[in-house]
Amino acid sequence: MSRRSRAAVARSAAGDRTLVVLSGLVLLALGVLVVLLGAGVFGSNRAQRPLFDPVLTGWVSANVDASRWIAIAAGVVLLVLGLVWAVRSLRPEPRPDVVLSETPGERLTVDHSAIADAVRHDAEAIDGVSRARVRMVGTERRPALRMSLWLIEGTDVRDVWADIDGRVLARARQAFAVDALPTAVRLELDAAASRSPRVQ
Description:
single chain, alpha+beta, two-stranded antiparallel sheet, 50% helix
């Protein structure tokens, strides 16, 4: 599955995964170093020596104020990095507008809400679809759609799927002048329009 198609299925967590993997590798390397140190790989008496070099501890004792400010600065840097990471992970997923033309001196874009409303209206016109929800995801250069459809009991899913691809998405691709528009479609039974949870 291409990166463009994955954007339609779920929000990308590649950046978070990369940070977690790097942090894990650093901690793993430190753990291996401690194990090797305790096993005597770096010398038989190295494991009994103090963790911090006596020169470093002597400098800290002689420069208490400087050591305190260095520790505070390091703590602030770590706090800022943690907050940036948390905000980046919790921020809402972007809803990009679609760029139709970028001729010199002018730029033609279509608002994401207008696109979602148009596609939703087309999807709700399909027989057997009681309601729909559509949202734009991805980027301006690589837009994608995420669609949820609620079906009436007894609806033939194959007919709905054919109408989605042959009518709704084909019209959207034609309007945006693109050959491919990655779309994730979620089908659910509309409990309000059905008596029993059964879809044929």
